[in-house]
From TrEMBL, chain A:
<comment type="similarity">
    <text>Belongs to the binding-protein-dependent transport system permease family. OppBC subfamily.</text>
</comment>
<dbReference type="GO" id="GO:0005886">
    <property type="term" value="C:plasma membrane"/>
</dbReference>
<protein>
    <submittedName>
        <fullName>ABC transporter permease</fullName>
    </submittedName>
</protein>
<dbReference type="GO" id="GO:0055085">
    <property type="term" value="P:transmembrane transport"/>
</dbReference>
<dbReference type="InterPro" id="IPR025966">
    <property type="entry name" value="OppC_N"/>
</dbReference>
<feature type="transmembrane region" description="Helical">
    <location>
        <begin position="32"/>
        <end position="54"/>
    </location>
</feature>
<keyword id="KW-0472">Membrane</keyword>
From TrEMBL, chain B:
<dbReference type="InterPro" id="IPR017871">
    <property type="entry name" value="ABC_transporter-like_CS"/>
</dbReference>
<keyword id="KW-0813">Transport</keyword>
<feature type="region of interest" description="Disordered">
    <location>
        <begin position="705"/>
        <end position="727"/>
    </location>
</feature>
<dbReference type="GO" id="GO:0015833">
    <property type="term" value="P:peptide transport"/>
</dbReference>
<dbReference type="InterPro" id="IPR013563">
    <property type="entry name" value="Oligopep_ABC_C"/>
</dbReference>
<keyword id="KW-0547">Nucleotide-binding</keyword>
<feature type="region of interest" description="Disordered">
    <location>
        <begin position="341"/>
        <end position="386"/>
    </location>
</feature>
From TrEMBL, chain C:
<keyword id="KW-1133">Transmembrane helix</keyword>
<protein>
    <submittedName>
        <fullName>ABC transporter permease</fullName>
    </submittedName>
</protein>
<feature type="transmembrane region" description="Helical">
    <location>
        <begin position="140"/>
        <end position="167"/>
    </location>
</feature>
<feature type="domain" description="ABC transmembrane type-1">
    <location>
        <begin position="101"/>
        <end position="298"/>
    </location>
</feature>
<keyword id="KW-0406">Ion transport</keyword>
<dbReference type="InterPro" id="IPR045621">
    <property type="entry name" value="BPD_transp_1_N"/>
</dbReference>
<dbReference type="Pfam" id="PF19300">
    <property type="entry name" value="BPD_transp_1_N"/>
</dbReference>
Length: 300, 727, 316
């Protein structure tokens, strides 16, 4: 007889499903999220405080102590120039995290602005911006970043510019999508009905809906940027020796994989843990903030 | 009736629980009932009563829930006590199932023919091998494949799918809801089951298609070979189709017995309350009976689950499980206070009393009894195009462009959808206009234009006699004059805002300061019977009924003269529906409001409206005073709509209409309704009828006056709305 | 199944995108700080070039013409399959690409195969056995796989399988044995991403009413999963796998360096360091074309996989 009542009672069982699922998955993802947050916190702490307490200089060479295995003096051994790997790892955290944060901030800024304007304005503005995104997406990201950074000249600053230029499209697309969806929501109609001016409509009803997905993507993105920076540096386009950057360190140790495995593996593990931390944190945030998840709970 | 000695299905003390982080939800909590061979049994209850989970438990689809107790004996086998393979063999082979939303139950990526053929294939093979089901070239048996396809097409024919040969190749999204449900039925019948479980099979369908599906189920049972367990929330359907009824609440059976007995002489307070909430026989525009409180999320482990809402509950009801009483043969009631419950009055509809609601204390409860509409109608002059109209639409049309390909656009090959064509309506101060139509009738587009969210392609909207444009063009004063309550209330409330913010939004935009806003919101909350504690909640913390109240409060914030309500009660259970309708009537009297109520449910509109507009495929079919439309409809479509309402008190079962609403992209020539009209003559196909006056109504039919005269002969009272003249 | 009209529309937009891409690709050399000609000569000789040498180079390569004219010369040549000559070696860029492309494509396809072979069964098992140790193990794999830098994974594989176990050659190109380790190094990350996707997609689908309806027919669970559920779950997966092709190309650059496999990636990196602009432009353009064509194919296959998508054409 009444359609919606019917749908609701069909969902009767689904609702229970959702209750059960969210409860279980929340518990589990909470624990993992905690691990992620812990990794990120430790990393942040190391990046800020670490350089103040480590006993060595990151660039201090000690040729008599080249390629030493892990020991009490050098817990992660020394590299091909006798530099303490652990010390360089700690300094490297500073570089990686700094770049990740700066690049992500730039991407969010560009992408969110473009997405908001395109989604809200619609019409030819939308068309123009979205074609721009299409063109940008015609290049595989890292290849484009590689070329941009390479032509600008190898340096960390140029890597940052290149990565920012390459990565904003995700935000633009997601934000535009959210804006378009929310624009169709009945509560936006209600706001129009009571004469809400455009700007306030934007701020009160559209903006808050966009914040959550952006936070989630940005967190996951921090990990991606760490990976990309390391990758570009590994190729030789990013940080230049003797800057203690993880990708550069890995590249420097590659002739010694047979004799001094720690030079390659120490930064490898560091990169992996960092990215893992951001991924865990991002996944947890998504579970907590995802409007889709919320909607699923709300709609039943 | 078939022998009752050996029930086909016997559910005993069934308990299905869902694990949650806090404590298990006992969705089914000791339900017991039986189904005999060839019998139609109705399983009724509000949402949350556990009726769906019960039905799913029988076929083993209770996951992620778990059957933790009781037994399900089917033809001697306890299905809770056998391994998955045996349980699976019962599915389809012995027990068929039809689900609620037919468009969601067909797999979107396989054509309909294959999905029916698959059901046949399952019964033909001993071991189901993936290759037999995936149609792998050279591996699969092509002959068997072809045979099953042919038999699938035969089955489609049996369930009245026209042109089954070519429809078999269509995908589910190309099927209308009614057709998809027939396909589901074909799947369920593929294995010649002894029991068919239908879980709200018509809830997602339009009322006019509902009856065809139900008739189909009826005829199945009539052969005596298939029993039907019909899960529904609609007591009207139960009354018309079921031999026996099982009333469920809180996962337990409250009452069960022969339909006739249970519905006319209900013993259990819950069954009575449910029946009394129905609009069916209530005086129009009077308060309906309601059930106190709402269905809780969880029930106490001990005691009667209904105790918290029951008028007769005693301490014993809450602390010990109620006894089972047998008031008559095969009639069981689970209640410990039957002696204190007054004797069941015989409910023959006509002299059913409307119980006043002491707990719902409200300004309107001292409203004098009697037909409110008559009183109001007497005081208001009514003309279709009344000059005193507060809100009016003149010849509104809305055309949407649906050209989706840019190539077509370039070629000038444009396609349009005429959602609304030449609709004129008006409503006078203090009156209620009802707009009725099935999905696709254009009623929501009319609402959008009335309130200014869409600009009409032609025609105009008038407010207080002055033409008004869209929202952007209306003055603050004009905006304040019209309040709107949208369909799907949930979506109209920002999930991030508190109830207070939601209700205050119109006030904020009109420049009220914070203190005044707070006062007004408190006032409004009281007006719609929400407690001040609700003010800080958010959308997901509110029940359907509460959300509806919030939306109403927001619509009333700026003291509008007119409130437009789009499907105000369609998402609600009977008792909540009654409560919201009561509230709306009270508010109207208290504040002198004018309503425009849009609904697909003719009984709702019949209850509240003074005048009704019946829409079909974008056009007005008939328009007139409510009694006139109900008593002597002058359009076959109105008639069909009236016939399609299942009713507890009706003598004849609801009748169906063949076919479905035509596509507005390519509307039929002549009368829009001619393809489904039982009275269509050749001229209906070629000539478009115009609106014609028949007494105080106007109708778009070539034979309007004959039809009106014909229905007048029946001279049935308003309450009995099943003249069934034309089918 | 796909209308000619829609095909024309998609090819039209893809061509427009590629036109813009070509302008950007050609314009990239202007990003070089200072005079590109001077930079090229400096990188070739390793010392500051004389003014005459610069002038001669500019004249020879048309550096003095305005951008639109230079672009016009370049693009008309490109259309005739002439991508110019390498500044360094003088070899035609198109020949160089034709030589390097097969190795990269081989790597990309092998990596995709590795990824899908791992991801689809893992993702399905993870969803079907939700919450069990199987699910947890596969999710752990997915998390670690996504987080692991592929170049480091490459070295790990070299250390374990090539150096210690001697099961595969360390570097270079050749038969299948040369392909295994790079394909695993490159495919693991993608496998992780696709595993997660298959899992979520499957979970969504397994929740759908039509899956229960299939069970209600009496369908065996195996058929419910592999016929009814997986077929639907793969629809979003196909899109992402197509987009992952870009990911593979990204990764190929790094993996080729790790395993010293001559291919498009290595060629590109060498050319960038040498400021060998014709080679850089040629490679970037080819990669973009490959990428756009893949996306087009994915889009079209999506329309075949999902009957609900209208074939008439849709406007973005």
């Amino acid at each position: 007889m009444s359609t919606v009542a019917g749908v609701l009672s069909r969902l009767e069982s689904k609702r229970l499903t959702t209750i059960a699922r969210t409860a279980v998955s929340e518990l589990r993802s909470n624990r993992l999220t905690l691990v992620g947050a812990l990794i990120v916190a430790v990393l942040g702490f190391v990046a800020i405080v670490g350089p103040l307490i480590v006993p060595y200089e990151p660039a201090a060479q000690d040729l008599s102590n080249r390629l030493q295995g892990p020991s009490l003096a050098h817990p992660l051994g020394t590299d091909q120039l006798g530099r303490d790997v652990a010390t360089r790892l700690v300094y490297g955290a500073r570089v990686s995290l700094g770049i990740a944060i700066l690049v992500t901030a730039l991407r969010v800024l560009i992408g969110t602005t473009v997405g908001m304007v395109a989604g809200y304005a619609g019409g030819w503005v939308d068309e123009l911006f979205m074609r721009l995104v299409d063109v940008q997406l015609a290049f595989p990201g890292l290849v484009l970043a590689l070329v941009v950074a390479g032509i600008l000249g190898p340096s960390l600053r140029n890597v940052m510019i290149a990565l920012a230029v390459v990565g904003w499209t995700t935000y633009a697309r997601v934000v535009r999508g959210s804006v378009l969806t929310i624009k169709e929501r009945k509560y936006v109609d209600v706001a129009r009905l009571v004469g809400t001016p455009r700007l306030r409509l934007f701020r009160r009803h559209l903006l808050p809906g966009v914040v959550n997905p952006v936070i989630v993507i940005a967190t996951l993105n921090l990990g991606t940027v760490v990976l990309a920076t390391a990758g570009l540096s590994f190729i030789g386009l990013g940080a230049q020796p003797p800057t203690p950057e993880w990708g550069t360190m890995l590249a420097g140790g590659r002739q010694y994989v047979r004799s001094a495995w720690w030079i390659v593996n120490a930064p490898g593990v560091a990169i992996m843990l960092t990215v893992l931390g951001f991924n865990l944190l991002g996944d947890g945030l998504r579970d907590a903030l995802d409007p889709k998840q919320q909607a699923r709970v709300e709609e039943v | 009736m078939v022998s009752r000695d050996t029930p086909l299905l016997s559910v005993e003390n069934l308990e299905t629980h869902f694990d949650t982080a806090v404590e298990p939800v006992r969705a089914v909590d000791g339900a017991s009932f039986t189904v005999d061979p060839g019998e139609v049994v109705g399983l009724v209850g509000e949402s949350g009563s556990g009726k769906s989970v019960t039905a799913r438990s029988i076929v083993g689809l209770e996951s992620p829930g778990e059957i933790v107790g009781g037994s399900i004996r089917f033809d001697g086998t306890d299905l809770t006590d056998v391994d998955d393979r045996i349980r699976r063999q019962h599915r389809g082979d012995r027990i068929g199932m039809v689900f609620q939303d037919p468009t969601a139950t067909l797999n979107p990526v396989f054509d309909v023919g294959e999905q029916i053929a698959e059901a046949l294939r399952i019964h033909d093979v001993d071991r189901q091998r993936l290759t037999d089901f995936m149609h792998v070239p050279f591996v699969s048996d092509r002959q068997a494949w072809r045979d099953h396809r042919e038999r699938a097409i035969e089955l489609m024919e049996q369930v009245d799918i026209a042109d089954p040969g070519s429809r078999a190749g269509d995908y589910p999204h190309e099927f209308s809801g009614g057709m998809a449900q027939r396909a589901m039925l074909a799947i369920a019948l593929a294995g010649d089951p002894d029991l068919l479980i239908a879980d709200e099979p018509t809830t997602a369908l339009d009322t006019t298609t509902q009856a065809t599906i139900l008739e189909r189920l009826d005829s199945l049972a009539a052969t005596g070979e298939t029993a039907v367990l019909l899960v529904t929330h609609d007591l009207g359907i139960v009354a018309e189709r079921c031999d026996r009824v099982v009333v469920l609440y809180g996962g337990q059976v409250m009452e069960s017995g022969p339909t006739e007995q249970v519905l006319t002489a209900p013993e259990h307070p819950y069954t009575r309350d449910l029946l009394e909430c129905l609009i069916d026989d209530a005086e129009p525009q009077t308060r309906l009976s309601t059930i106190e409180g709402t269905v809780p999320d969880r029930f106490d482990e001990i005691g009667c689950p209904f105790a918290s809402r029951c008028d007769y509950a005693t301490a014993a009801c809450r602390t010990s499980d109620p006894p089972i009483v047998d008031p008559g043969p095969d009639h069981r009631v689970v209640c410990g206070e039957l002696e204190t419950v007054p004797d069941a009055h015989v409910m023959d509809g006509a002299n059913r009393s409307t119980r006043s609601e002491p707990t719902d204390g409200h300004a309107g409860s001292d409203r004098p009894p009697g037909n409110e509409r008559e009183r109001r109608v007497a005081s208001a002059s009514r003309t279709g195009d009344g000059t005193a109209a507060i809100l009016a639409a003149r010849n509104l049309s809305k055309r949407f462009e649906t050209t989706d390909s840019w190539v077509d656009r370039l070629r000038g090959n444009r396609r349009y959808l005429d959602a609304v064509e030449d609709v004129s309506v008006s409503v006078e101060r203090g009156q209620t206009l009802g707009i009725v139509g099935e999905s696709g009738s254009g009623k929501s587009t009319v609402v959008d234009m009335l309130v200014g969210l869409e600009a009409p392609t032609s025609g105009r909207v008038e407010l207080d006699g002055n033409p008004v444009g869209t929202v952007a063009d209306r003055s603050a004063e004009q905006l304040a004059k019209v309040g709107v309550v949208f369909q799907h209330t949930r979506g109209s409330i920002n999930p991030r805002a508190t109830v207070r913010d939601v209700i205050a939004e119109p006030l904020f935009e009109s420049g009220w300061d914070a203190d005044r806003r707070t006062d007004r919101v408190d006032e409004l909350l009281e007006l719609v019977d929400l407690s001040p504690t609700h003010a800080d909640r958010r959308r997901h913390q509110l029940s359907g009924g509460q959300l509806q109240r919030v939306a109403i409060a927001r619509a009333l914030a700026l003291e509008p003269a007119v409130v437009v309500l789009d499907e105000p009660v369609s998402a609600l259970d009977v008792s909540n529906r009654a409560k919201i309708l009561n509230l709306l009537l009270d508010l109207q009297e208290q504040l002198g409001l004018t309503y425009v109520v849009v609904s697909h449910d003719l009984s709702v509109v019949g209850h509240v409206a003074d005048e009704v507009l019946v829409m079909y495929a974008g056009q007005v079919m008939e328009r007139g005073p409510t009694e006139t439309l109900f008593d002597r409809p002058s359009h076959p479509y109105t008639n069909a709509l009236l016939d399609a309402i299942p009713s507890v008190s009706g003598d004849t079962p609801a009748a169906s209409l063949p076919g479905s609403v035509p596509s507005a992209v390519d509307p039929p020539s002549g009368c829009r309704f001619h393809m489904r009209c039982p009275l269509a003559e050749p001229e209906c196909r070629s000539e478009t009828p115009s609106m014609e006056a028949v007494d105080d109504a106007r109708s778009r039919c070539h034979f309007a006056s004959e039809i009106a005269a014909d229905s007048d002969d029946d001279s049935e009272p308003l309450e009995h709305i099943s003249p069934d003249t034309f089918s | 199944m796909i209308s000619a009209e829609y095909l024309a529309y998609r090819i039209g937009t893809s061509t427009a995108v590629l036109a813009c891409v070509s302008v950007l690709t050609f314009g990239m050399m202007y990003l070089t700080p200072g005079d590109p000609a001077r930079a090229v000569l400096y990188h070739q000789t390793g010392q500051q070039p004389s003014a005459e040498a610069v002038a001669a180079f500019r004249a020879e390569h048309g550096f003095d013409d305005p951008f639109p004219i230079r672009y016009w010369h370049w693009i008309t040549d490109v259309v005739q399959r002439d991508l110019g000559e390498s500044y360094r070696t003088g070899r035609p860029v198109s020949t160089m690409i034709v030589d390097a492309l097969p190795a990269t494509i081989e790597l990309a396809i092998a990596a995709m195969a590795v990824a899908l072979v791992i991801a689809i069964p893992t993702g399905v098992a993870s969803a079907v056995y939700r919450g069990t140790w199987i699910d947890q193990a596969s999710q752990l794999f997915a998390l670690v796989g996504v987080s692991m830098p592929n170049f480091w994974l490459g070295y790990l594989l070299i250390i374990v399988f090539a150096l210690h176990l001697g099961l595969a050659p360390v570097s270079g190109t050749g038969g299948l044995s040369h392909l295994v380790l790079p394909a695993i190094a490159l495919g693991t990350g993608m496998a992780a991403i696709v595993t997660r996707l298959v899992r979520t997609s499957m979970l969504d689908v397994l929740d759908a009413e039509y899956v229960d309806a299939a069970r209600a027919k009496g369908t065996a669970e195996r058929i419910v999963v592999y016929k009814h559920a997986l077929r639907n779950a793969l629809i979003p997966v196909v899109t992402v796998v197509g987009l992952q092709f870009g990911f593979v190309l990204n990764g190929a650059v790094v993996i080729e360096i790790v395993f010293q496999r001559p291919g498009l990636g290595m060629m590109l990196v060498d050319a960038i360091f040498a400021r060998d602009f014709p080679v850089v432009q040629g490679v970037v353009l080819i990669v973009a074309v490959l990428f756009v064509v893949t996306n087009l194919l994915v889009d079209l296959s999506y329309r075949v996989l999902d009957p609900r998508v209208q074939f008439g054409g849709e406007h973005a």
